[in-house]
Automatic annotation (TrEMBL):
The lineage of its organism: Bacteria, Bacillati, Actinomycetota, Actinomycetes, Pseudonocardiales. It comes from the Bacteria. Residues 4-64 form the HTH tetR-type domain. The keyword Ligase does not apply. Pfam families: TetR_C_13, TetR_N. It comes from Kibdelosporangium aridum. This is TetR family transcriptional regulator.
Amino acid sequence: MPRASVREVIVETAVQEIHKYGFAACSVDTITKAAGVPKGSFYNHFKSKEDLGAEVVRRYATESEWHRSTPGLSPLEQLKARFTTMRDLLVGNEFTRGCLIGNMAAERADHSGIIRTQVAISLGAWSDGIVQAIKEAQAAGEVGAGLDADRLGRFVLNAWEGTLLRAKADKNMQALDDFFTVVFDTILG
């Protein structure tokens, strides 16, 4: 099996470290030490910590558990299953970490154009996926055809990100239960 490149090791480590501790708490030195690579090698692959941060958001968005699908589910069941997977990850981490994309939006959007841009791209792609699932559920007769799928897809993602913040603050299931009840039983049900 080929050995991972130094760049890959840095990115993979940074995803884990930043997700666990936050962007500000992770210095280049902290990340390279955790990755087991010389600090100088960081600058062979990234111009700055901000560039790494944008790559971390991109990587997280493309490789998250969200993309895992369960065969045989209807479009609405598939959408609910994906949110259930993300919920279970949060609960399994004892209501810590949450969504790295949302965390980076909260922490860096006001301070880093490159990270803000990647966060916006990632959130846009994610809400587009939710919109597509809602449209498929509408075509299957699971969701009312009169609902604006585009607006609803954006709303569901926005509600999810807020739900994660509240669940992390409260350290309990209430916000998560509210999300699933309102989104899947009331709005989409």
